[in-house]
């Protein structure tokens, strides 16, 4: 085969895509999470890059494995862990992760409390994550320069070494608030230089949070009455303005408390018989008892 014939050699992208079944994961991500359009678009871009790299390799065009370490920034409850799980599956199906599992950790899982404790803890976690994705939530807590006896820097140095030498077998995702992650990267330029992809997770709108609430309730086999829907629509913007709002996480907590009040209300009726509808329905009063309304 001459050089011209080499250049005209074909690869069937559609067949590669069907073989990987990565579209199934992307579709699941699309339906699983409401909103997050820029995040979903970026995940698809990364999947496209990896599929093209797979096509290139099939024709002998090997430029080396792309760097896949990532940073997820955004407020709590915006789906960062869920996206990391789906990303692990994408990497596995496209041949960039042996196992495709996710190991989610925080500082406490990596950093020891005395000399000689941090290295084995960190290495044990890395061993568990090999072949998949290591997700480090609130990664900036690893770095505490104000405490000279802190062992977080030791964990960072071990991570940096593994991120470079074993990047073909491990993808590291660091996550947290955007402003704190920016400070963290400035303080650890070695880590910043190894991060190839930065995904920003926006807060949900009030309309999106209502859809999320309805989906959560349906999954738990509950529903809202007309007064419940009206109360939820008032509750969400009020809760969004209060401190420590955590997007979908706050909505889930609110629904859990509403279920508790519903149970207490039904129990208080002292009725020996309850209908299926009564057991499934969250009323407006179950939501309006929240301190948010006061």
What does this structure look like?
With 294 residues, the protein is an alpha/beta fold. It contains 15 helices and 7 strands. α3 packs antiparallel against α4 (37-58), α3 packs antiparallel against α5 (80-93) and α7 (118-129) runs parallel beside α8 (152-165). The radius of gyration is 24 Å and the shape is globular.
Descriptive labels:
two-stranded parallel sheet; about 290 residues; alpha/beta
Q: What's the rounded overall pLDDT mean?
A: 92
- Strand order within the widest beta sheet: 2-3-4-1-5
Q: How many DSSP helices?
A: 15
- What is the N-to-C order of secondary-structure elements (H for helix, E for strand)? HHHHEHEHHEHEHHEHEHHHEH
Secondary structure: number of strands: 7
- Gyration radius, in Å: 24 Å
Shape, per Cα inertia axes: globular
What is the straight-line distance between the termini?
79 Å
Low-confidence stretches: none
Q: Helix share of residues?
A: 55-70%
Structural class: alpha/beta
Strand content: 5-15%
Largest sheet: 5 strands, parallel
Write the layout of secondary structure elements.
Layout: H1 3-7, H2 13-20, H3 22-32, H4 37-58, E1 70-74, H5 80-93, E2 102-105, H6 107-110, H7 118-129, E3 133-137, H8 152-165, E4 171-176, H9 178-187, H10 189-192, E5 197-201, H11 206-219, E6 223-224, H12 226-240, H13 247-268, H14 276-280, E7 281-282, H15 284-288
């Amino acid at each position: 085969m001459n050089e011209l014939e080499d250049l005209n050699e074909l690869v069937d992208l559609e067949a590669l895509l069907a073989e990987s079944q990565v579209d199934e994961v992307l579709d699941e991500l699309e339906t699983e999470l409401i909103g997050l359009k820029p995040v979903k678009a970026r995940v698809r871009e990364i999947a496209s890059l990896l599929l093209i790299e797979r096509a290139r390799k099939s024709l002998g065009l090997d430029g080396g494995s792309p760097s896949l370490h990532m940073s997820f920034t955004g407020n709590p409850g915006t789906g960062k862990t869920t996206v990391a799980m789906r990303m692990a599956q994408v990497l596995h199906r496209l041949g960039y992760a042996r196992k495709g599992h996710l190991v989610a950790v925080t500082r406490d899982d990596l950093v020891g409390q005395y000399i000689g404790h941090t290295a084995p803890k960190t290495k044990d976690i890395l061993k568990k994550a090999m072949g998949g994705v290591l997700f480090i939530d609130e990664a900036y807590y690893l770095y505490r320069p104000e405490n000279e006896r802190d062992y977080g820097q030791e964990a960072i140095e071990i991570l940096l070494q593994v991120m470079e030498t074993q990047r073909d077998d491990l993808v590291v995702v660091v996550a947290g608030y955007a402003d704190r992650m920016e400070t963290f990267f400035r303080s650890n330029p070695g880590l910043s230089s190894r991060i190839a992809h930065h995904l920003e997770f926006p807060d949900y709108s009030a309309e999106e949070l209502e859809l999320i609430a309805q989906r959560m309730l349906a999954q738990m086999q509950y529903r809202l009455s007309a007064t419940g829907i009206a109360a939820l629509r008032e509750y969400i913007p009020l809760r969004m303005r209060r401190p420590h709002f955590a997007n979908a996480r706050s909505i889930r907590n609110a629904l859990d408390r509403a279920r508790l009040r519903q149970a207490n209300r039904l129990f208080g009726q002292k009725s020996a018989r309850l209908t299926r509808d009564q057991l499934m329905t969250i009323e407006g009063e179950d939501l309006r008892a929240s301190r948010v309304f006061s």
